[in-house]
Specification:
Elements lengths: L6 H6 L23 H12 L17 E2 L5 E5 L4 H6 L6 H12 L8 E4 L13 H18 L3 E5 L1 H8 L5 H4 L4 E3 L2 E6 L2 H6 L4 H17 L1
Parallel strand pairs: 2-3, 2-4, 4-6
Antiparallel strand pairs: 1-3, 5-6
Bound molecules: uracil.
Length: 218
């Protein structure tokens, strides 16, 4: 059974499946945290970045949030308007659904690591351009290398395609356990898509349960 704490969040996700086979991965032993100096330098580099034109339109960069020794890493696409204003990923409507997804897994935002492929907001929330992804991806790669999570969850096709260096569509990438630099990776729908297509929440929950199996059994 899912814990009682998960119940309201599963309901928010539109999920009525209660089977739980193992404790949440976020609650176990952690790996060594990255050196605080290195992390601070990376954060400062992102804050001052002018590698692509998006820097001109940003209010601030959106570096990432959560534990530097997290077992779970969630990767989204790019900051939206609210994230650009607040400097934190996934704080708008899609972020509230992501919080529900985390809670359904028995996880809190502060114990996972959440970041985007792009650290600056694309104008009008347009899709990231390949040149922007190429400029910004090294930051995400450095973050993942420092955190060294047990599982990466790619939220939507941009995160999945960028990390796996593929142009395969989301439909082909979901349902498998991929590997990014030796770290297992599961691909699921972006929360913003799930807000538009709630019928796919059950499939997203199946993806997250697959990720939990990997995180707890690897
Ligand atoms: N969508 C994303 O991909 N990332 C955010 O931080 C917010 C919305």
């Amino acid at each position: 059974m899912e814990s009682n704490a998960s119940r309201p969040w599963l309901e928010a996700m539109g999920i009525t499946i209660w089977q739980r086979r193992s404790p949440p991965a976020g609650a176990g032993a952690s790996n060594a945290p990255p050196d605080a100096g290195d992390w601070g330098r990376l954060e400062a580099e992102v804050r001052g970045c002018t590698r692509c034109a998006l820097h001109a339109g940003r209010t601030q960069t959106v570096f990432g949030v959560g534990s530097h020794s997290a077992q779970w890493c969630f990767v989204g696409e790019a900051p939206g308007a609210e994230e650009d204003r607040r400097g934190e990923p996934f704080v708008g409507r899609a972020g509230r659904l992501l919080d529900a997804m985390l809670a359904a897994l028995g996880l809190e935002r502060r114990e996972v690591f959440i970041a985007n492929v792009l650290k600056c907001r694309p104008p009008g929330n347009r899709d990231p351009q390949p040149s922007e992804v190429a400029s910004c991806l090294p930051f995400l790669r450095a973050q993942i290398a420092a955190v060294r999570p047990r599982i990466i969850v790619a939220l939507g096709r941009f995160a999945a395609q960028a990390l796996l260096t593929t142009d395969q569509p989301l439909g082909r990438l979901r349902g498998a356990i991929h590997e990014y630099e030796g770290i297992p990776m599961v691909v699921t729908y972006h929360p913003a898509y799930l807000l538009r297509r709630p019928a796919d929440k059950a499939a997203a929950w199946a993806d997250l349960k697959r990720a939990r199996e990997v995180a707890t059994h690897e």
